[in-house]
Structure formats: structure tokens, C-alpha cells
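User: Please fill in residues for this 263-position structure.
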């Protein structure tokens, strides 16, 4: 199967800092890819190069066979790659419904609908789709609540629903569960991942909680010092000694029969 997203020899330097080096990989359509790595490992840099928020120093990025390397982020979003940020990007003084109308109008590039949405005037063409989306993301109960007063988890759902308003084929989520309590994380990810599956969206998500990664990713990329040190199923990647040593901090299990050094 051909890849929906393909990166080759990707590198990004900031002065003497090498934030990404020698990253080459293919992502098949509809795969859900988890990205792990310590702070500063280069996860966000990788995401930002794909979305056009950063221009790679070297290498190439292809989306659906087209070279998108170095294109402006607006063009890349229009082509079908969307993202969320670590901090939810919503209009605080608008309701959930109006935020969704604005995001949908912006994604469709229709200036008439954008200004209408910001004045809470609802174009029927957009309102119908927004009603479907807020059901899918399970935020319909908050339809008329101002975004500024939403519980954190609901604000995250709104943010991701807004990123999906333009019907992207690929969605990049940078730490979608950051700031969410452990009890709420699974519920949030259940809603998000079911919604994205229902829309056949290919997902790449950065996540620090290994239980979340194991549960929701088909494949896990482990980043260390700007490069991918492991790439496989969750079991394969999280089972690697180097990943445990450098990233997850899990204690290494001694091979069967070997005496413990402390025995
Ligand atoms: N705009 C920037 N200018 C200079 N250095 C940066 C910039 N963005 C990231 N870096 C550096 O690149 C490395 C990778 O950062 P980042 O991609 O944010 O890591 P992560 O998301 O895995 O925590 C870090 O050393 C960071 O300090
Ligand atoms: Mg980051």
C-alpha cells in the first residue's frame, strides 16, 4: 500500500542544535501513529516540519505523492493536513457552536461565513455539518457554552473537532492529553480516536503516557536526540531495552535465569 505521508532524510538545525536528523519513514493511510520521546527529543520539530510551521534544513516530505517540503502551513492545511497544538486554540469569547462554525468557515476559505460566524450568525450550509461534528465529538451538551468557561477536557475536544472541521486526511496531535487528569485521559482519547476512525483520518499523536500510547497507537515511533531510535508496534517499540533506558524509564528485566546484581 502506498504511503499517505512519506518523509525522507529529514533534518532541522537551529544554529548548532540539531533538532531533527536523518528521519525517513512512510505512514500508510489510516494508520494511528504514536510518537514518544523525552522533552527536547525533537517530536514537536518533526510535527512542525510536516505542517509547514518549520522548513526542514534537509530532506523531503510527500503527502499523497505530492512534494510539500517547505510549503506555507496554510497551503498544507488546505491540501489536507491539519493539527492541534499543546494548548487548545479556540476563540474564548465564542460558544462551542460558534467556534465550530468559525473553524468550518475558515477551513472552507469562505470570508462571508467567517465574519458571520464571528457575529454568531449561522449559515445553514455550515450549521448542519457543525451539528453532526459536535455529536461525533460528544460536545453537543456544551453547544451554547462559551469556550472560556469549558472544562479542560471539553476544550481539548473542541480544539480537535475544530482541527477536523476542514475534513483533513491527516491529523497531527501534539500532546492532546497534556493538562488532563489521569482519570479523564482515556475517556478523552476514546472519544477522539473513535471520531477520527469514523472519518478515516490518519493520525500521528505525541504522547507521554505509555498506557495511552499502548492502547491507541497501531505503531509507535520513539524519538531520541532528533532521530527515530525505534519504530514498530507498541509492543515492539516499548519492549526495546534502549527505549526503556532512554525514554520510558522502565526497569530493565533481566534475561531469564540471570542472577540479579543485587542478589
Ligand atoms: N525555534 C527553535 N529555536 C531554537 N531551538 C529550538 C527551536 N525549537 C526547538 N528547538 C530545540 O530543538 C530541540 C527539539 O525540540 P522540540 O522539537 O520542541 O522537542 P520535543 O517536542 O520533543 O520536546 C530542543 O533542543 C529544542 O531546544
Ligand atoms: Mg514538544
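Assistant: Residues filled in for all 263 positions:
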Amino acid at each position: 500500500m502506498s504511503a499517505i505521508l512519506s518523509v525522507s532524510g529529514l533534518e532541522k538545525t537551529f544554529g548548532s542544535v540539531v533538532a531533527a536528523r536523518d528521519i525517513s519513514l512512510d505512514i500508510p493511510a489510516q494508520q494511528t501513529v504514536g510518537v514518544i520521546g523525552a522533552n527536547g527529543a525533537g517530536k514537536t520539530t518533526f510535527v512542525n516540519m510536516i505542517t509547514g510551521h518549520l522548513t526542514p534544513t534537509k530532506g523531503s516530505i510527500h503527502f499523497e505523492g505530492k512534494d510539500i517540503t517547505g510549503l506555507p502551513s496554510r497551503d498544507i492545511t488546505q491540501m489536507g493536513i491539519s493539527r492541534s497544538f499543546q494548548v487548545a486554540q479556540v476563540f474564548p469569547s465564542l460558544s462551542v457552536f460558534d467556534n465550530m462554525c468559525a473553524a468550518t468557515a475558515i477551513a472552507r476559505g469562505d470570508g462571508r461565513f467567517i465574519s458571520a460566524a464571528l457575529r454568531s450568525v449561522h449559515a445553514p450550509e455550515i450549521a448542519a455539518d457543525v451539528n453532526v461534528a459536535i455529536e461525533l465529538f460528544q460536545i453537543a451538551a456544551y453547544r451554547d457554552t462559551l469556550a472560556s468557561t469549558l472544562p479542560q477536557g471539553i476544550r481539548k475536544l473542541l480544539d480537535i473537532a475544530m482541527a477536523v472541521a476542514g475534513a483533513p486526511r491527516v491529523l497531527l496531535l501534539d500532546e492532546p492529553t497534556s493538562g488532563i487528569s489521569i482519570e479523564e485521559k482515556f475517556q478523552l482519547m476514546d472519544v477522539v480516536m473513535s471520531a477520527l476512525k469514523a472519518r478515516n483520518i490518519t493520525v500521528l499523536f505525541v504522547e507521554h503516557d505509555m498506557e495511552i500510547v499502548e492502547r491507541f497507537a497501531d505503531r509507535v515511533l520513539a524519538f531520541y536526540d532528533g532521530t527515530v531510535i525505534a519504530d514498530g508496534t507498541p509492543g515492539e517499540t516499548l519492549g526495546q531495552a534502549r527505549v526503556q533506558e532512554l525514554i520510558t524509564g522502565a526497569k530493565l528485566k533481566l534475561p531469564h535465569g540471570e542472577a540479579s546484581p543485587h542478589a
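For context: DSSP finds ten helices and ten strands in the chain.
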